[in-house]
Amino acid sequence: MSATKLKILKGYDFHCHFRRPVVKTAVELTAECFCGAVAMGNTDPPIAIADDALLYEREIRAALPFGCAFQPIMTIMLTKMTTPQIVIDAARRGIKVVKYIPEGVSVNSKESVALEKLSDYFPVLEAMQENDMVFSGHWESLHDSKGRELEELDREEAAIPFLDKVVKTFPTLRIVAEHASTKKLIDYVRQSPLNLRATLTMHHSLLTFCNVCSEPGVITNPYNYCKPIAKTEEDRQAVERAMVSGDPHFFPGSDMAPHPLSAKQKIPPVAGIFCPGKIFVPLMLEIFLANNALQNLSNFYENFGAEFYGLPKSLESLELTQEDWTVPPEYDGIVPFMAGQTLHWKVAD
């Protein structure tokens, strides 16, 4: 390695939204920098059974450049209609993940199970555990213990007791806490057995609430608005520390969510940040370098998640060069994270 170039193996993105119909640009930009990605199933309608997932996989593959070896990792959604047999059938047909968003918490979750009702579906989780699937969850609660609606800043912390019940009830179930954004959730994951992991985004390591809202409910930058929303400076620092720590509990998930200008500019805007690989990977490298933690980069990006999911490591390399470049204002009408800002490392063409 020279001072201005770095070559690494491609890793996986363990949290992607390609939408439906599939956004070809999102697939192409992801495949440039990742060898595979978990394709979340909260489409409209949701990816509910194995047949849906396999059809969605074909749609994603059709958007890939010819000869690309990128591997979509398919999911089905936990909905009110999910049964143990649906999970068993999905596992037998190669589906690795059950995706969970509590009802009403985020985009396309109206058919999902409310967090307070999750225990009613423990036989479904038992089938996941028995079939060695991954249960990947968006852990936010809309309400407190008295049924009062919570501010977005408080929703992740309020979901930890529900996550804790799952962790304790299913000691061998592989569980992911998606896009951990608070110090309390990160501390909980760090202290838990290794059947619980968390994905981390670039935006939660860089943004705070003031980069999104002027006050609760008043969104001033819709392109930084996502769920879970960016939190306090203490929380941001916790995400950054976890990312560079070398702790196997944590690995990358971009939560890349492409939405057109019309969806992001309406009031309220659709939640989701578009952070494709050619932005995600340089930002990740800059964070590791800033923390003098380059020795931990390969584990975070290449190893920890692949080992947890039982996926093969990529043999394809990715070269980055130390070169200032400006993130474009849009990719095919989709405004990316950090649009117009200068990054100091670039994925080589």
Structure description:
- This protein is α/β, with parallel strands linked by helices.
- It has a single domain (5-347), classed as Metal-dependent hydrolases (TIM Barrel, Alpha-Beta Barrel).
- Helix content is 32%, strand content 19%.
- The protein contains eleven helices and 13 strands.
- The strands form three sheets. It has an eight-stranded parallel beta sheet with strand order 2-3-4-5-6-7-8-11, sandwiched between helices. A three-stranded antiparallel beta sheet has the order 1-12-13. A two-stranded antiparallel ribbon has the order 9-10.
- Helix 3 packs parallel to helix 4.
- The model has no long low-confidence stretch (mean pLDDT 96).
Task: Map the helices and strands.
Elements lengths: L4 E5 L1 E6 L7 H10 E6 L10 H13 L8 E7 L6 H9 L4 E4 L21 H9 L3 E4 L17 H15 L4 E4 L5 H8 L5 E5 L1 H5 L6 E3 L2 E2 L13 H12 L5 E3 L8 H5 L11 H14 L6 H13 L7 E10 L15 E6 L2
Parallel strand pairs: 2-3, 3-4, 4-5, 5-6, 6-7, 7-8, 8-11
Antiparallel strand pairs: 1-12, 9-10, 12-13
What is the CA-based Rg, rounded? 19 Å
Helix content: 25-40%
Report the mean per-residue pLDDT as an integer.
96
Number of helices: 11
Q: What is the CATH class designation?
A: Alpha Beta
Offer a few descriptive terms:
alpha/beta, TIM Barrel, three-stranded antiparallel beta sheet, globular
